[in-house]
Amino acid sequence: MSKKHVSLYIAMSLDGFIADESGSVEWLEKIDGGVDNGYQEFFNHIDTVVMGKTTYQQLFTLTDTFPYSKKDVYVFSTEKAGTKDEYANFVSGKVNDWLSGIHGERIWLVGGAALVKQFLKERAIDQFVITVAPIILGKGIPLFEQDSIHPLKLDDVTRFGEFAQLTYKNLEDER
Description:
Layout: E1 5-13, E2 17-19, H1 26-31, H2 39-44, E3 48-52, H3 53-62, E4 72-76, E5 89-91, H4 95-101, E6 106-111, H5 113-121, E7 127-133, E8 141-142, E9 152-160, E10 163-170
Parallel strand pairs: 1-6, 1-7, 3-4, 3-6, 4-5
Antiparallel strand pairs: 2-8, 7-10, 9-10
């Protein structure tokens, strides 16, 4: 079996929030100005998408068409685990157990914060691609909750208009 590669590809405010207090990302939609931020190139290189239940539900409020229909999609949800709908398979349990059981090799961890924390806890993220948006929210849902130390190595910095995209590699886990 080939090596799995998990990338966290996500946008956050300058002060580290991925959503406002109500869980909305409308602030990001208002400031993105149609800038691609390297998204299409990244998206073309992944085969699997994974997210939490809240992120999955929020997708349907942001768009009329499901954006990941050509990818294998998994949603971590304890309530619906073991089921599927027309777009996704619902799973639960340990991240590394799930990773060892899927066919995909290039996995995009979309979010949200609770699932990111679970992936971090199991040291399952190889690459962090964080696009910093030009806004300070003041409060909201933080990308990283208090956790243990995760040493990273800066791999790239790219500017997309008013956005800065930081790409880091995980130094601890050379999977």
